[in-house]
Amino acid sequence: MSFDVAYLWAQVPALLRGLVMTVEVSAISIVLSIIVGLLGAAIRMLHVPVLRQVAAGYVEFIRNTPLLAQLFFIFYGLPTIGVTLSLFWSGVLSLTLWAGAYQMENIRGGLETVVKGLREAAFSLGLSPWRFFRLIAAPLAVRVALPAMLNTSISLLKNSSYLQAIGLTELTFVAIDRISMDFRTLEMFSALCGIYLTLVLVLSLFTNRLAYHLQKPFRV
Amino acid sequence: MTILINNLPFILQGLTMTLGLAAVTLVFATIIAFVVGTLGATRIGWLRAVTRTYVEICRDIPLIVNIFFVFFGAPLLGIELSPFAAVTVGLSLWGGANGAEIVRGGLEAVPRHQSESAKALGLKGWEIFIYIIGPQALRSILPPFIGLLTLVIQSTSLGALVGVTEFFRVGQIIIERTTLMEGWNPAFTVYGAVLLIYFVICSSLTWFGRRLERRMRRESKGGGVLNATLVEAAPTLP
Questions:
Q1: What are the structural domains, with CATH classification, of chain B?
Q2: What are the distances in angstroms from CA B199 to CA A40, B55, B117, B202, B203?
């Protein structure tokens, strides 16, 4: 079987539609998961009584169960007890919950390295715990944790391909769908690999720019 | 709850399949990891480049795509792969790439003076590797490898997508069957139970890995010569 460029060219519109969906679902989930991570890290750093244990349990649970099972639980399991989410938002929710746990650990790691004597200093200046987290700890921790957070975001982007299992028409779904009709396996997979590698690269470049930008105030 | 008890033999069969799949994958992934990781830690330029390319490609492509590629791509080469074999190959390639990074990190974390002292004492290249570098690297390699194992166990659930009747697929089948035969949908209970069982298996492994890591760290602190720093590199997520 030879490599058919014309065929691939004809599939570009379909692949582009899938790509848009992949980017959309990943972008929303990345933003939401970072928010979840920040909140969780704040809860655990400030020793909020019950919520702290909940956050720790949540991280353990997410890290020790397969994403596929989490996804199916949210998409097929929750509706049977009356919580129905659309296809798209089920996907966003599962990716957010999954990556949120990892982001929380990343940010916590960042907090541990920067916040040693800072807390006492801030409290003696009269800052409330929440303002200390928001104004001092979080900005510093995020700068330290940025590489790890990038890794998690890349994983999230790659794992958005899990959503093809529940039928969201993202990139992988489109490709597999075409393959099962036209059997042009090689063409489709090279396209998939190319696109995913590019996406990962773009995301890394973007994060590098962001890191550069964030470091500006500290550069002499 | 009763559906779970009624389907117990079926569930156990699925669990066996999952653990079997994970075990076979682990064997192949470990072999790939040690070969590729060792080659990647050498100072031979083109070898490093080749292993680097393999590792990067396998890690940057979604695991699902990887497995589908093996599943749909093997017939193009004229190879008939059963779903089980396809998943094993796909997971092993992926696990091997992640393991190779762990192995390479472990080998490179052994301080340079170790091999230099060994060379000064007149040990041959392979002797240095087997008696000096290897044992020291192993203690920093083992804990992250257990992390990789839990990821492999979790990822075997992808077998359900290409038709391996492993634990997750068993859950799906039970749901379909109950919906058809009894007219109600037990998705919440069954998927909840599936999540819990995965959690029990993987978290006990994680716990064991953490204990091992603490022990290794303690030992290497007191061990004088054996002061290879533990690799931080947790395997990247599926």
A1: 2-222 (1.10.3720.10)
A2: 21, 28, 46, 5, 6
